[in-house]
Amino acid sequence: MSRWINEFLELLRFPSVSTDSRFDSDVKACAEWLSSRMITAGLEGHVHETEGHPVVIGRNKHESGRPTVLVYGHYDVQPVDPLELWDSDPFEPVIRDGKIWARGATDNKGQFFSHLCGIAETIEERGVLPVNLIILLEGEEEVGSPNLRPFLEEHRSELACDVVVVSDTGMVAPGVPTMTYGLRGITCCEVSVRGPARDLHSGVYGGAVANPAAVIGQLVASLHDRDGRVAIEGFYDDVAPLEEWEREMWTGVPGMGDDDLLTVTGSPQLVGESGFTSAERLWARPTAEVNGIWGGYQGEGSKTVLPSEAFAKLSFRLVPRQFPVDIMDKVEAHLRDHCPPGVSLEVMRGHHGQAYHTDPHSSYGNAAQAALEDTFGTAPWLIREGGSIPIVQDFKEVLGVDTLLLGLALPDCQIHSPNENFTVANFEAGIRLNRVLFEKLAATGMGS
Q1: Domain spanning 2-183+355-442: which CATH class is it, in words?
Q2: Which of 46, 74, 79, 198 is 20 to 30 Å from the Cα of 416, by its Cα?
Q3: Do 310 and 193 form a contact (C-beta atoms < 8 A)?
Q4: Would you tell me which CATH number, out of the four given (2.60.40.1730, 3.40.50.300, 3.30.70.360, 3.30.2130.10), belongs to the domain 187-239+286-352?
Q5: What is the model's pLDDT at position 278?
Q6: What tens digit of pLDDT does each residue of 51-60 get?
Q7: Structure confidence at residue 1 (pLDDT)
Q8: pLDDT for residue 233
Q9: Strand partners, 57
Q10: CA 174, CA 312: separation in Å to the nearest integer?
Q11: pLDDT, tens digit, for every residue of 314-357?
Q12: What is the 3-state secondary structure (H, E, C) of the chain?
């Protein structure tokens, strides 16, 4: 394992932050390193330029009669701020307490690189893989993958496959294999409320002029009723009920009890839509969230002003049969209907992505479950996840294939936060999983 660990540490040293142009050369260098690593592993490796950051493609020699498997990952990472909260340099990885600490360790370098190491081991031992393989690694996932769907459409024929494998999701608890078969969608917006032409004296003008900060608070408060339901008209019209087997399985998922969630989140109490368990709320119910709210004086002490403008950033997590554009139309109508006179309202729409859902009991789904059980020694839990990976729906729409979401991230891996980490045990498990997964997928007898 020292060989693979050392190479993994080398990969983690690339500060491949996609959102900050100061790191553009590092992102490109990381892509070039991965291409060369694919070639070393016995694959073809190519770097494809896009209007943004590169896409790296690897493949073996394809043969008829075998399923074609596309393994997806992303090599770009989140910014490291606030740097002072890290216990070690985020781009100088260290191994401590059985974990590898670095930015990108779990999201997503460790997860996809374990697949590449498993592929390399299989080729070294057997000379060939049991499946036709395509590896696609992008450098823009953390900025919404703006160039990946156009890339899929442009290279549709070269990327034709039978199933996609993604390890960019989580495990419910250490040592507990987890297969995700659904992801919530998302739609976002920024709301701006503007009143007077400038900040006003709150004593001289308060009570006669609308206060944008108060209005933004009213609008945010209008999003939910007292039972925790989203109060936007028509929001739940197309939401399908959970199947009974889902509700039954989720009642016993390790790490998803109320005490577990309180420990992980550090929250004093759990809240949410009444009539549903926490797992159901997180994985299969739509939500309205306030990601940021601001306006007026923010400095030390008091400044008695009536602010001229105020803002809020909102995101809505969606479930199957909810469409982002339709939901945002309903959101905007709700906000305009609840906006009082005396201010102007602007809704700037942001990024969005469709919810994803597939049958975990398909031939490929059953093969993936068997591979997880062989790898971890126990049957996997079948879950949905609350987060969003819009590219998974793009695979469905552009390539016409489903995705097996086989996560290796633990609840305390701290992705997107200081001190991100990936356990050495899960890195090793990812290598084993890849090797047995390809065997199970080949044994389905499906493919062209």
Answers
A1: alpha beta
A2: 46
A3: yes
A4: 3.30.70.360
A5: 94
A6: 999 999 999 9
A7: 63
A8: 98
A9: 46, 136
A10: 37
A11: 999 999 999 999 999 999 999 999 999 999 999 999 988 889 99
A12: CHHHHHHHHHHHCCCCECCCHHHHHHHHHHHHHHHHHHHHCCCEEEEECCCCCCEEEEECCCCCCCCEEEEEEECCECCCCCHHHCCCCCCCCEEECCEEECCCHHHHHHHHHHHHHHHHHHHHHHCCCCCEEEEEEECCHHHCCCCHHHHHHHCCCCCCCCEEEECCCECCECCECEEEEEECEEEEEEEEEECCCCCEEHHHHECCECCHHHHHHHHHHCCECCCCCECCCCCCCCCCCCCHHHHHHHCCCCCCCHHHHHHHHCCCCCCCCCCCCHHHHHHHCCEEEEEEEEECCCCCCCCCEECCEEEEEEEEEECCCCCHHHHHHHHHHHHHHHCCCCCEEEEEEEEEECCEECCCCCHHHHHHHHHHHHHHCCCCEEEEECCCCHHHHHHHHHHCCCEEECCCECCCCCCCCCCCEEEHHHHHHHHHHHHHHHHHHHCCCCCC
Instruction: For 56, list phi and psi in degrees, rounded to 5.
Output: -110, 130
What residue spans define the domains of the chain? 2-183+355-442, 187-239+286-352
The letter for the amino acid at 116 is L
Q: Inter-axis angle of helices 2-12 and 111-126, to 10 degrees? A: 140
Amino acid at 42: G
409: tokens are 């991230």
Determine if the peptide bond prior to 426 is cis (ω within 30°).
no
Q: 115 and 167 in contact (C-beta within 8 Å)?
A: yes
Q: What is the pLDDT of residue 448?
A: 56
Check if 2-183+355-442 and 187-239+286-352 are the same fold.
Answer: no
Q: Determine the pLDDT at residue 445.
A: 79
- In one-letter notation, the amino acid at residue 146 is P
Q: If you search the block for the tokens 């459409």, which residue do you land on?
A: 153
Q: Which residues of the chain have pLDDT under 70?
A: 1, 447-448
pTM of the model: 0.87
